[in-house]
Structures are given as C-alpha cells and as structure tokens.
Amino acid sequence: MRHERLGFALCGSFCTHKEVLKELAQLCREYETVLPIVSPVCQTTDTRFGTAEDFLAEVERLTGHRAIETIRDAEPIGPKKLLDALVIAPCTGNTLGKLAAGITDTPVTMAAKAHLRNDRPVVIAVATNDGLSAAARNIGELLVRKNYFFVPFGQDDPSKKPCSLMADFTRIGETVDAALQGRQLQPVLRR
To answer: So where are the chain's domains?
Structure first.
C-alpha cells in the first residue's frame, strides 16, 4: 500500500464517469488515502448516466471518505498540506478554462489552487468536446505551467466529433507516478 496521499477531483463529462470510477477504484486499492472532491455539477445533476446521489455515494464508498463538496472545505488542502498529488478526472473544458485563468469558484478549482501553493503535482485527465477549439488555448497554457501534468490524451472520435479530446483514463496511475517524480508521462499525445 502506497503512503502518498491523493486527491481525486471529479467534474462533469458524465459519459466518462463509469470509466473514471474504475480508475478511482484502482487507485484506492493502491493508495492508503484518496480524498474525493466533486464539482457542483456532479453533486446536483441527474443524467441518463445516473443520479447525482448514486454517483456521490459510489465515490464515497470507493474512497472511504466523505467527498469535499464546498470551496470552504477544499481550502485547507493547501495550508494543511493534505495531498501529495491531486488528480482531476474527468477535467472538463470549463474546469480547464478556470484553471488556466486562475478562477477559483468551485471545490475542484480551489483544491487545485490550494494544492499548488505547496509546489506539488496536479494531474489532468481531460475530457472535453471542444479540446481542439475553445479549450485548446487552455490546454496549451496548462501544458507549460509548472506542476501541471497531463494524462495522455487524443481525439476520441475524429469523424463525428473532430474537436473532442479524451484522456486515456487507464493511464491515470502511471501519470501520477511520473508526476510525483516531477516528469510528464510521454508521449502526452496518444494515437
């Protein structure tokens, strides 16, 4: 069992939640501590993929921790140095934009801001339909910033959704390993 403490922040992109939860379960088997953080949309939005209540219950069951659901509860991550690494998966175009612009208006963005003050890694697993359009500049901005590391990503459906980008969620664990060593897992662009 690994002793590094992980934060695992979940945003919208509901169609990816099932796959992301599999990876969260794997991390929970490997690490003693995985603290869940959920965006407001995950806390309140029922979709064809399931209810917000069921999703939150599953996240808390897997991690064994109550989810951080407010900005106030995410803020101590920094001063108390609660995490060694923070994963944001799925990271939507909305959250990418907020991180790139320094906007702190959700528990996820506050967790990132608080965590980064300790010079520790944030691992981004992107999932956005506008990754090669509106969100492209934000991905570029974060790729060159210190302490941001990307799970390898690429186009998930080039013919039907030519601007959509998706991380290879199965590589979250190895991206965390690399990030804890201060390096970006390569190649960052998957085929």
So the answer is: 2-180
